[in-house]
UniProtKB/TrEMBL annotation:
PANTHER family cross-referenced by the UniProt entry: RESPONSE REGULATOR RCP1, RESPONSE REGULATOR RCP1-RELATED
Keywords: Phosphoprotein
Full protein name: Response regulator
Keyword Lipid biosynthesis: no
Top-level taxon of the source organism: Bacteria
Pfam families reported in the protein's UniProt record: Response_reg
Modified residues (4-aspartylphosphate): 63
GO-annotated biological processes: phosphorelay signal transduction system
Domain Response regulatory: 9-130
SUPFAM superfamilies referenced in this protein's UniProt entry, alphabetically: CheY-like
Length: 143
């Protein structure tokens, strides 16, 4: 299987069942092959990054509002374990606050996307993200 056909290992981190369902439905509409793991807490996320790097998710979709540890705090924890060149973390959240966006980029988020309210728009945003990620990021990691 070549690089363009290999499923992307995604980790979706969101504690809100409705938001998680919307993301899953939007992902199901994609042509890109993917393997999806779900997490709703920082403990689940940190467990996903135990063991060999070959088993780590390649692309993390991280909600900002999580119980206990915020998405920004979790991002900072993840960046202590791995570099942005190892795993891409995309903040996927409802927050449009400039302070949240700036803090996410200060903490080395790969991208910041505001969750659309409509499935068709959400699907289009994820399609663009996955296509960009596959062609611009994943291929450059191998080269």
């Amino acid at each position: 299987m070549n690089l363009r056909e290999r499923p992307i290992h995604l980790l979706l981190i969101d504690d809100d069942p409705a938001d998680r369902l919307m993301a899953v439905l939007a992902l199901e509409q994609q042509d890109e092959a993917y393997q999806l793991s779900l997490a709703s807490s920082s403990a689940e996320v940190l467990a996903a990054f135990q063991g060999p790097k070959e088993r780590w998710p390649e692309l993390v979709l991280l909600d900002l509002a999580l119980p206990g540890t915020s998405g920004l705090q979790l991002l900072a924890q993840l960046r202590r374990v791995m570099s942005p060149w190892t795993v891409s973390v995309v903040m996927l959240t409802h927050s449009e606050l400039d302070a949240d966006i700036q803090q996410a980029y200060d903490d080395q988020v790969s991208a910041y996307l505001v969750k659309p309210r409509h499935l068709a728009t959400f699907s289009a945003h994820l399609e663009a993200l996955l296509r960009f990620w596959r062609h611009a990021v994943l291929i450059n990691r191998v080269v």
